[in-house]
Design goal:
about 170 residues, mainly alpha, about 70% helix, about 0% strand, elongated
Length: about 170
């Protein structure tokens, strides 16, 4: 936070101004500029939102009937068709972010993220295959979509948890 905006207490935690320390940036301006674009944090929201929507809408489709079932089933089809592509986008921006932030993508947490992203991608490909092979208004394919979306949702949640644990980390220099 800019020093001129600070008052007697920290606006976030309330600690006294006596405890403030000047912040010194420890990364190069080029790396800071790339990280400030927030490419990965933005890109990762699409697969998260898609898989949550697919799971919830697939449950709604299983409970619905008639025109409403067909309409919601179509929405699941559209999201399921796009899911592998947004997962790939999030994975690629994650690799770029990891390389810029840590100068390598082989740190223990990034290795875990890559494994769970690969699993998420495999489940999304399964959903994609079901969506393209069958009409989404019938319950058979929707059961498969629901079953595939559940472990994909678990992967997405785990990825989000891992990501939030390293969001403000960066290798100095």
């Amino acid at each position: 936070m800019d020093k001129s905006k600070l008052k007697d207490n920290c606006p976030a935690c309330g600690v006294s101004a006596k405890m403030f320390e000047p912040y010194v940036e420890k990364i190069s301006p080029k790396r800071k500029r790339i990280l400030s674009l927030d490419l990965h944090p933005i890109a990762v929201h699409f697969p998260q939102a898609f898989i949550i929507s697919i799971f919830v809408l697939s449950l709604v489709t299983l409970a619905a009937h008639g025109t409403f079932q067909a309409t919601v089933g179509s929405a699941v089809g559209v999201l399921g068709s796009a899911l592998p592509f947004v997962v790939i986008g999030a994975l690629l921006t994650g690799l770029i972010d990891g390389k810029v932030r840590f100068r390598r993508v082989t740190t223990p947490i990034l290795k875990q993220k890559i494994i769970f992203a690969a699993l998420f991608f495999l489940f999304s490909c399964g959903i994609f295959t079901v969506v393209l092979s069958r009409p989404m208004a019938s319950s058979g394919p929707m059961i498969f979509v629901t079953l595939l979306s559940l472990p994909a949702l678990v992967c997405a949640s785990f990825l989000g948890s891992l990501g939030s644990s390293i969001l403000n980390s960066k290798f100095p220099g």
